[in-house]
Structure formats: structure tokens, C-alpha cells
Design a protein that fits this description.
alpha+beta; 10 strands; 20% helix
């Protein structure tokens, strides 16, 4: 009888350990997935660079800009240009504008990716408003720069070497307490 009780206790302990492990993995899943995407470009996640490459290819690629605002963020947001044509390896500087449509400060954070997803590992940002939360005062408008390049290694990858156009997409989401801001008049989303 004592042996049976010991086995039941061991089984209960193992099951408790499995449950604890599953709970721990569920909390670690999001940071691990984000790290995986940042390192591999999976899902169109762009990369961060500190300097541009030292050589520029004699091949041009078009980068289009797609901008969106979540319905809970009372901002207007858009790019100053619809697209840019740049040589692979060359650095581009583009500007985006945001406007707070309310009479109170509102904070937002931009989510971003590129399409096709396979180019995520080759699309590199040196500077981007998407790296941190943005707070706009009541009625404030701001210009936000993005400096980026397409890594020349894109032409060495069989899955990306023939790509001629990339879409860089941003969606701004509210990142403050929505209860302290008045609803914005008119259209609450913008896209291009």
C-alpha cells in the first residue's frame, strides 16, 4: 500500500511539473517568438542596423509605404511619399506624419513589417519612429523619419533575388490609457 501511495505522489509531482513547465513556456512564448522574428526576418519582421553597407549595387528596387491606424487611436497617420526607388545597398530617408485629432495627449506605438515576408531579413532600419512609443499633445502634428536600406545580400538568396518591389507597412496602436482621451471627430483611421 505504501509503494502505491509513493507512485501516486510521484505521478502527481510529475504532472504538477508538466503544468508548471507549460505555464512557464506560455509566458516565454511571446518574447521568444519576437526574438526569433527579429533575428530571422520571419513574418516580414525588419532588421535593425547601425550603419549602411559599404557597397551599393547597380540595381534599383521600389519600396512602397502602407500606413494604418487602429480604430482605438484617434490619429491621422501617413507617409509623405507613396514610394521610393533606391539602389540596393543605398540608404533612404523618408518621412511620415502623424496628427493627434483630440484635445488631450495620446500615445501610440507602431507595429511594422515588410512584404513579401521573405525580404524581412534584408530590409534594415537605421532609425525609425517605430523603435519607441510616440506621444502627441492635443492637436499636435509631427514628422517622423525612417532611415533604411535593402541589404545587397538580397540578390544572393534564391528566394529573394528577383524581387523588384517591397512594401513597408506600419500600423499605429494606442499605447496609453484610452479612458482619459476624448473621441476624435470624423474618420479615425487613415491608410494609403
Amino acid at each position: 500500500m505504501a509503494g502505491r501511495r509513493d507512485k501516486r505522489g510521484l505521478v502527481a509531482l510529475v504532472l504538477a511539473g508538466v503544468v508548471a513547465g507549460m505555464v512557464g513556456l506560455s509566458f516565454a512564448a511571446v518574447p521568444l517568438y519576437r526574438l526569433f522574428c527579429q533575428q530571422t526576418g520571419y513574418g516580414g519582421t525588419t532588421q535593425v542596423a547601425t550603419v549602411a553597407p559599404d557597397h551599393i549595387l547597380d540595381r534599383t528596387i521600389k519600396v512602397r509605404f502602407d500606413t494604418n491606424v487602429d480604430k482605438d487611436l484617434p490619429w491621422q497617420f501617413g507617409s509623405e511619399q507613396r514610394s521610393v526607388d533606391l539602389k540596393i545597398g543605398d540608404t533612404a530617408l523618408v518621412f511620415f506624419k502623424a496628427h493627434n485629432n483630440t484635445d488631450k495627449p495620446v500615445s501610440g506605438t507602431a507595429g511594422f513589417n515588410v512584404a513579401p515576408e521573405s525580404v524581412g531579413r534584408y530590409f534594415k532600419k537605421i532609425e525609425c519612429f517605430c523603435f519607441k512609443q510616440q506621444t502627441l499633445a492635443a492637436g499636435q502634428s509631427i514628422e517622423m523619419p525612417v532611415t533604411f536600406f535593402v541589404d545587397p545580400a538580397i540578390v544572393d538568396d534564391e528566394s529573394t533575388k528577383n524581387i523588384e518591389e517591397i512594401t513597408l507597412s506600419y500600423t499605429f496602436y494606442r499605447s496609453d490609457d484610452p479612458s482619459d482621451v476624448a473621441a476624435a471627430p470624423g474618420d479615425r483611421a487613415s491608410g494609403s
